[in-house]
Amino acid sequence: ETADIGVTGLATMGRNLARNLAHHGYVVALHNRSESKTKQIMADHSDEGAFLPASSMAEFVASLRRPRRAIIMVKAGPATDAVIEELAALMEPGDMIVDGGNAHFADTRRREAALKERGLHFVGAGISGGEEGALNGPSIMPGGSVESYRELGPMLESIAAQVDGVPCCVHVGPDGAGHFVKMVHNGIEYSDMQLIAEAYDLLRQALGRSPAELAEIFREWNRGDLESYLIEITAEVLDHVDASGQPLVDVIVDQAEQKGTGRWTVASALDLGVPVTGIAEAVFARALSGHPEQRAAARNLEGPNGTAPNYSLVEDVRLALYASKIIAYAQGFDQITAASEEFGWNIDRGAMATIWRGGCIIRARFLDRIRTAYEANPQLPTLLADPTFAEALTEAQQAWRRVVSTAAQIGVPTPGFSSALAYYDGLRRERLPAALIQGLRDFFGAHTYRRIDRDGTFHTDWSGDRTERPA
Ligand code: NDP
């Protein structure tokens, strides 16, 4: 009973998380369903810290000091349920199970409630940063009770990435809050990548630049407002020439895959009634890319004979990318706000921006601006209303419009840029055509409408004398 914490599930993520914990001086118990992975870590890394390998779950649990803490890093879904059950059966009231996998937040809510009944703490912790992050400092988004965070928090904070001396880990909120925020983080990651891909595609098609020349443009952009890990690695990928001497990006099959967290984000946004168009367009663009039969069938459809106008497209695209990114993040934070209200999580949005500054895939200078915006006004109804972002949008909007119209004229799809601009213009409008939609709904379904000049709801007798009466 000497291990401070245990990790069960020692594939890529679990192995590196266990090593990270050991590097920070914790005694780490190790377990994996197939023992070969446990043995492999002992063979490769036992000199890095104090590990206690276990060949069975019972031995693993027995090696943990009390109250016990075990992190699960296995495949999300039924595998996680199976491992939780195995662990819970061996644990005692007051012990803690942490799920660091990519669980759906609804599963986490269910598991937390069930384990609480058995006297066990359950913490669903979103962990971002992939293989490298898990080893050297991820961004960690733990949910669960305040009590469990009090015990677990210091340990997680010590192994998380640090930015300006601040750990990229904070207690997000009760039950599924951590996994929810991790899910939205992944959705935002989808939209970031989609916008980068559109910028690349448009510049390449419109200006005929080579991947290497485009890499240089992204490198340049990485010195300004867009500075981020994803922009940095975009330059790396574009610059890479494979063994056959071709730019790698030209030989990779152009069908983007997905593991599902983007889709979860959009499904949840539909349930919550939050327009996350940036993330949704990104998920759908990947889906479109994955239908080669439809793409082949559509190949001969007519395209435009327009040419790219002769203006400073590179700078315009940079501005359009930045503006669209602001929209996508604003929408993602709206989704967090809505869920926080729906589930009573009381999430501090500024703190989420703070813990995404390091360790994770969307890490960027930009997140500091979001943190500042919520610090200045914790009740901010939309990030677009923050003076700094409003100014950035003002500066970008003419360029953004030129980019969207150029893309349409030369036939390059930019669903991210275009829908972000439509969202911006939609929110800006004093009156929306939603009034007409309400009129139509009242006409065919007597769904009623409200008026701008009187309180109450009304119905017009469309099939009769068309007089209006209170509904
Ligand atoms: P995988 O998702 O590939 O899962 C493999 C691990 O799960 C192995 O240890 C495997 O054990 C174990 N496992 C699978 N089924 C069972 C079962 N029924 N009972 C017990 N153990 C089982 O591993 P990763 O390291 O890639 O990811 C772990 C978790 O972290 C996942 O939830 C993933 O979504 C999440 N995650 C992954 C990231 C990444 O970059 N890879 C980033 C952030 C989160 P065995 O060796 O015996 O087969």
Automatic annotation (TrEMBL):
<dbReference type="InterPro" id="IPR036291">
    <property type="entry name" value="NAD(P)-bd_dom_sf"/>
</dbReference>
<dbReference type="InterPro" id="IPR013328">
    <property type="entry name" value="6PGD_dom2"/>
</dbReference>
<dbReference type="Pfam" id="PF00393">
    <property type="entry name" value="6PGD"/>
</dbReference>
<dbReference type="InterPro" id="IPR006114">
    <property type="entry name" value="6PGDH_C"/>
</dbReference>
<comment type="subunit">
    <text>Homodimer.</text>
</comment>
<feature type="binding site">
    <location>
        <begin position="9"/>
        <end position="14"/>
    </location>
    <ligand>
        <name>NADP(+)</name>
    </ligand>
</feature>
<dbReference type="GO" id="GO:0004616">
    <property type="term" value="F:phosphogluconate dehydrogenase (decarboxylating) activity"/>
</dbReference>
<comment type="pathway">
    <text>Carbohydrate degradation; pentose phosphate pathway; D-ribulose 5-phosphate from D-glucose 6-phosphate (oxidative stage): step 3/3.</text>
</comment>
<feature type="binding site">
    <location>
        <position position="102"/>
    </location>
    <ligand>
        <name>NADP(+)</name>
    </ligand>
</feature>
<comment type="similarity">
    <text>Belongs to the 6-phosphogluconate dehydrogenase family.</text>
</comment>
<feature type="binding site" description="in other chain">
    <location>
        <begin position="185"/>
        <end position="186"/>
    </location>
    <ligand>
        <name>substrate</name>
    </ligand>
</feature>
<keyword id="KW-0570">Pentose shunt</keyword>
<dbReference type="InterPro" id="IPR006113">
    <property type="entry name" value="6PGDH_Gnd/GntZ"/>
</dbReference>
<feature type="binding site" description="in other chain">
    <location>
        <position position="190"/>
    </location>
    <ligand>
        <name>substrate</name>
    </ligand>
</feature>
<feature type="binding site" description="in other chain">
    <location>
        <position position="102"/>
    </location>
    <ligand>
        <name>substrate</name>
    </ligand>
</feature>
<feature type="binding site" description="in other chain">
    <location>
        <position position="259"/>
    </location>
    <ligand>
        <name>substrate</name>
    </ligand>
</feature>
<protein>
    <recommendedName>
        <fullName>6-phosphogluconate dehydrogenase, decarboxylating</fullName>
        <ecNumber>1.1.1.44</ecNumber>
    </recommendedName>
</protein>
<feature type="domain" description="6-phosphogluconate dehydrogenase C-terminal">
    <location>
        <begin position="178"/>
        <end position="463"/>
    </location>
</feature>
<feature type="binding site">
    <location>
        <begin position="74"/>
        <end position="76"/>
    </location>
    <ligand>
        <name>NADP(+)</name>
    </ligand>
</feature>
<feature type="binding site">
    <location>
        <position position="447"/>
    </location>
    <ligand>
        <name>substrate</name>
    </ligand>
</feature>
<dbReference type="InterPro" id="IPR008927">
    <property type="entry name" value="6-PGluconate_DH-like_C_sf"/>
</dbReference>
<dbReference type="GO" id="GO:0050661">
    <property type="term" value="F:NADP binding"/>
</dbReference>
<keyword id="KW-0311">Gluconate utilization</keyword>
<feature type="binding site">
    <location>
        <position position="441"/>
    </location>
    <ligand>
        <name>substrate</name>
    </ligand>
</feature>
<feature type="binding site" description="in other chain">
    <location>
        <position position="286"/>
    </location>
    <ligand>
        <name>substrate</name>
    </ligand>
</feature>
<feature type="active site" description="Proton donor">
    <location>
        <position position="189"/>
    </location>
</feature>
<dbReference type="InterPro" id="IPR006115">
    <property type="entry name" value="6PGDH_NADP-bd"/>
</dbReference>
<keyword id="KW-0521">NADP</keyword>
<feature type="active site" description="Proton acceptor">
    <location>
        <position position="182"/>
    </location>
</feature>
<dbReference type="InterPro" id="IPR006184">
    <property type="entry name" value="6PGdom_BS"/>
</dbReference>
<feature type="binding site">
    <location>
        <begin position="32"/>
        <end position="34"/>
    </location>
    <ligand>
        <name>NADP(+)</name>
    </ligand>
</feature>
<keyword id="KW-0560">Oxidoreductase</keyword>
<comment type="function">
    <text>Catalyzes the oxidative decarboxylation of 6-phosphogluconate to ribulose 5-phosphate and CO(2), with concomitant reduction of NADP to NADPH.</text>
</comment>
<dbReference type="InterPro" id="IPR006183">
    <property type="entry name" value="Pgluconate_DH"/>
</dbReference>
<dbReference type="GO" id="GO:0006098">
    <property type="term" value="P:pentose-phosphate shunt"/>
</dbReference>
<dbReference type="GO" id="GO:0019521">
    <property type="term" value="P:D-gluconate metabolic process"/>
</dbReference>
<dbReference type="Pfam" id="PF03446">
    <property type="entry name" value="NAD_binding_2"/>
</dbReference>
<feature type="binding site" description="in other chain">
    <location>
        <begin position="128"/>
        <end position="130"/>
    </location>
    <ligand>
        <name>substrate</name>
    </ligand>
</feature>
